Amino acid sequence: MLAERYGAVRSFTAALAAPLSEEDAVVQSMAEASPTKWHLAHTTWFFETFVLAKRAEGYRVFDPRYAYLFNSYYEAVGDRHPRAERGLLTRPTLAEIRRYREHVDQAMLAWLSGSEIPPDAAFSVVLGLNHEQQHQELLLTDIQHALSRNAIRPAYRDPSRAPEPSAASPPPLAWLAFPEGLELIGLDASDGFVFDNESPRHRVFVEAFSLASRLVTNGEYADFVRDRGYEKPELWLSDGWATALARAWRGPLYWESDGAFTLHGLRPIDPHAPVCHVSYYEADAYARWANARLATEAEWEIAAARAERRGNLIETDRLAPSPAKGPRPSEAPEQLFGDVWEWTQSPYSAYPGFVPFDGAFGEYNGKFMCNQMVLRGGSCLTSETHIRASYRNFFPPDARWQYTGIRLARPR
To answer: Which residue spans within 198-252 are E strands per DSSP?
Structure first.
């Protein structure tokens, strides 16, 4: 079973990279993004470093130099190539990276098919697969940003496969009420694989609140833009206002006068689809303009615990946010999973009783618990086998190149 899952995840990563040329795969368009080639190598380095080199007797490291090139942030493992200079790695070539993946995959599948795997080794594999699924999404968001900087506006995917704008208006936004009280959020390892930042399961008290029945649409956000929302400092956090001025923000990332740049190239903006590629600062400003606020992550998880874990995720192969369908049962807001990651007003910090993973894996999440905001729910680029109600994503408040959007909340 673990070998089958390993093969499926690794093959899917290769399929996502398949449409790209070697020139595409080496580009790094900003320090926060990574080249496709680096994603392919780094996720392979993870299995070589944390599984094969430690567990597989007689394993031969493909190239010792890769330990420096493709380590991301693991101080316990050693030095690494500067993040902002990953795009300078013209060598090894894309073909060599693919041979590296094949070398590691053959060794991993042989090892997984061998004798019984100890629980701690199996955990390393499962963590590596979840790690690779995170990089699958990053691979797509990073290449979209890179292609957007190309003057001829090339598309990642054939534009003929782009979703057509919806003819039907979304259902009217409704407010779904949730009572005050003590609730449980988070998960423990006994519930199956969870990242350490999702644990432990613990009690939180929430005041009564209401959550919007669906996500904010492009059309609704366009109203905010037309109302000069980017020119009203009273709507913005101080740091957000300074950032918006310094970077001359006038709308979501990728919005242009004649459309928006997507994985399918430049496309008309669908007014009924969820707004996407907005920062926390923009989401917060929009919420104030709409006389609402963003949900806390506890409120979001309480609502999501009642919903089915399904939606417009990467398995739909749409690669774009989808309009709400409505109506939904009164107890479950629509679009909680998939479409766009939803900014919450919660800073990314440790849960009470948080214990990081052992060893180098302890660097995976905990050391980033500063200057980041929590997002929930996954996007149209997230796998349905990766997301859950307790999943805590996090990014700096100025980040816009991820598939990030807005759901409103308010007190009851």
So the answer is: 202-206, 209-212
CB contact at 8 A, 181 and 216: no
3-state secondary structure of 184: strand
Tokens 């369908």 -> residue: 325
DSSP calls for 80-126? ---GGGGGG---S-HHHHHHHHHHHHHHHHHHHTSSPPPHHHHHHHH
Task: Note the Cα 11 to chain centre separation in Å.
Answer: 20
CA atoms of 140 and 84, how far apart (whole Å): 18
Q: How far apart are CA 319 and CA 218, in angstroms?
A: 16
> Which residue is it, tokens 């994985």?
263
Task: Give the pLDDT band of residue 317 (cuts 50, 70, 90).
Answer: very high
Domain ranges of the chain: 2-148, 159-411
Using CA atoms of 359, 364, 28, 43 in order, give the dihedral in degrees to the nearest 10: 60
- On whether the CB atoms of residues 328 and 361 are closer than 8 A, the answer is no
Closest CA to 197 of 75, 342, 372, 76: 372
* Residues 347-394: tens digit of each pLDDT: 999 999 999 999 999 999 999 999 999 999 999 999 999 999 999 999
pTM above 0.85, yes or no: yes
Q: How far apart are CA 128 and CA 144, in angstroms?
A: 24
Given the structure tokens 């090894």, which residue do they identify? 92
Backbone angles phi, psi at 2, to 5 degrees: -65, -40
CATH homologous superfamily for 159-411? Answer: paralog of FGE (formylglycine-generating enzyme) (3.90.1580.10)
**pLDDT reported for residue 338:** 98
Distance CA 385, CA 125 (A): 15
For 317, the 3-state DSSP assignment is: coil
Per-residue pLDDT tens over the stretch 279-304 = 999 999 999 999 999 999 999 999 99
Q: How much is the pLDDT for 327?
A: 67
328: pLDDT strictly greater than 80 = no
27 CA to centre of own chain: 20
**Strands 393-395, 373-376: parallel, antiparallel or unpaired by DSSP?**
antiparallel
Which residue has tokens 């242009």?
Answer: 256
Give the pairing of strands 408-411 and 209-212: antiparallel
Give the model's pLDDT for residue 368. Answer: 97
Give the CATH architecture of domain 2-148. Up-down Bundle (1.20)
| Four-point Cα dihedral 227, 231, 233, 234, nearest 10 | -20
Residue-wise DSSP of 343-392? EEEEE--PPTT--PPSGGGGGSSGGG-SS-EEEES--TTS-TTT--TT--
